[in-house]
Every structure is written in C-alpha cells, then in structure tokens.
Inverse folding.
C-alpha cells in the first residue's frame, strides 16, 4: 500500500459518523430561531419604548408624553417621569439586555461554526454556544422583569408596547433554543456512544 493510500484509509477510519437529515434540520432551525431572537432583541433595545400608560411612554432611553394634539414629546431625563428609581434603575436594565444580545451573538457564532467546521470539537462548540444562549435568556429575562417591577404602578397588560413584546419573545426564544441545543447535543452524543460499543 502506498503512503497516500495509507493516509486516505487513516482519514476514513477517523471520520466522524454522518449526521442524519433530521438532526441537521433541527440544528439549522435552532440556529435560525436564535438569529430571529437576536434581531427581535436588538430592535427592542434600540427603540426602547416599552410601556404606554396614561398618556406617558416609558422606555429604556426616553420618557415621552402625549399632548392633546397627539404630538409626542420625548426627553432623555428619565427623572421627569416621576417614577421612583426609574432614572437609576434603567441603567442596569439597559446593560443587561444589551449584554444579552452580545452574548447571544457569540453563542450564535459558536453554533454556526460547529455546523460548518465539522471537527472533533464541534460538539463542544455547540454545547458552549447553547450555554451562551441560556445566559442570554437569563440576562434578557432579568431585564424584562426588572423593568416591569420598576414601573409596576403604571402596568396594564395592554400598555406594553410591541417592542416590549419583542424582547419578551426574544427571551423566550433564547430559553427554548438554549435548552433544545443542549438536549439535541446530549441525545446525539448518547447515540454516537452506543454506536461505538
């Protein structure tokens, strides 16, 4: 046998087992849903107007009032909202939800790299990416809950704006996809382990 033939045979022996179509599809859907969650969360944070109550619009960056002529007057000084702790409380909330997007982007990158570069560390990259997505969920959910607690006196179910619901859904998608990513990783690891025995 020639040296090239021996190397080719050695490569065939060390090749990882092929993924099934359903596993590839599920992993691709998880990546797609995480990407959608990142976009929703980014839109929600950039707009930042999360609650409309009694002619006032409360947000992460602005406080707005609606005058009789339906003209929106916004200021960045949140202490004018006369909500106790709002001007100080939104600072960590902004940081948490913004950092959640950054962590989710790194997690999404690891998920994609683990699928494109199918090497020996692909499983670890997928697991780490899923853990980062779960960390994004914790940060995002904490931010959403903290904002709701800060403006609890003005809360109404119909007062939450579309951008608030975008952040809420993004947090839910982060949780769902982080858990799903870890679960499919453990299932495929068990299946591959059984195949070796």
């Amino acid at each position: 046998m020639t040296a090239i033939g021996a190397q080719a045979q050695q490569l065939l022996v060390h090749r990882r087992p092929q993924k099934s179509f359903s596993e590839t599809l599920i992993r691709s859907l998880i990546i797609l849903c995480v990407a959608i969650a990142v976009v929703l969360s980014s839109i929600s944070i950039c707009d930042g107007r999360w609650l409309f109550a009694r002619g006032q619009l409360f947000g992460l960056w602005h406080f707005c009032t609606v005058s009789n002529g339906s003209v929106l007057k916004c200021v960045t000084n949140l202490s004018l909202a006369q909500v106790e702790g709002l001007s100080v409380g939104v600072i960590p909330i902004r940081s948490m939800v913004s950092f959640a997007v950054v962590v989710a982007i790194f997690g999404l990158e690891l998920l994609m790299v683990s699928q494109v570069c199918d090497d020996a560390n692909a499983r670890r990259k997928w697991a780490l990416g899923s853990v980062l997505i779960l960390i994004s969920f914790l940060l995002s959910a904490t931010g959403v809950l903290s904002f709701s607690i800060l403006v609890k006196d003005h809360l109404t179910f119909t007062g939450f704006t579309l951008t608030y619901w975008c952040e809420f859904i993004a947090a839910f998608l982060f949780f769902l996809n982080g858990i799903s990513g870890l679960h499919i990783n453990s299932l495929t690891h068990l299946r591959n382990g059984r195949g070796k025995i």
